[in-house]
Design a protein that fits this description.
Layout: H1 2-13, E1 20-26, E2 30-35, E3 40-44, H2 45-50, E4 60-62, E5 65-67, E6 76-82, E7 86-91, E8 99-101, H3 102-110, H4 112-125
Antiparallel strand pairs: 1-2, 2-3, 4-5, 6-7, 7-8
Length: 136
């Protein structure tokens, strides 16, 4: 019986993403990805930097919430293939530790508007901005 529950749980949680058919770096501003279901997403550098899957994304903890801010004008310098499942993006703020899988690109593309809206709402909630800090 436990084996049946495990199998059912894995079926429920397994998400089948479409396969990537095209990856194009539009440096420094965006990445364009296309999938075999016809989906085509243009993902801006700021969005990718904010939602980098890396653990050390240069975040600020505000009231216990991790927030990345001031990245409106961040650029992408390069994309380095990682196996056959993703790429490592190098941003011009020298962040380069996150590996973006093809499935993660699909997730980011299909949820772009909701995730960007949530990001902007979080910034406003904490009095932060998408714009970089002004140097004195």
């Amino acid at each position: 019986m436990a084996g049946i529950h495990r199998a059912f749980r894995s079926i429920q949680t397994a998400v089948e993403y479409p396969r990537l058919t095209r990856f194009s770096l539009k440096a420094p501003k965006s990445v364009e990805v296309q999938f075999d279901d016809g989906s085509l997403y243009s993902l801006p550098a700021e969005y990718l930097r904010v939602y980098s899957p890396a653990a050390d994304s240069k975040v600020r903890s505000v009231a216990g919430e991790k927030v990345i801010y001031g990245r409106r004008y961040v650029g992408i310098l390069s994309a380095e293939p990682v196996g056959n499942y993703g790429v490592r993006l190098l941003f011009d703020d020298l962040h380069k530790t996150g590996i973006f899988t093809w499935d993660y690109f699909y997730h980011l593309g299909s949820n772009k508007f909701t995730m960007m809206r949530n990001y902007i709402t979080t910034l406003k909630k904490h009095g932060l901005s998408r714009d970089p800090l002004k140097r004195k």
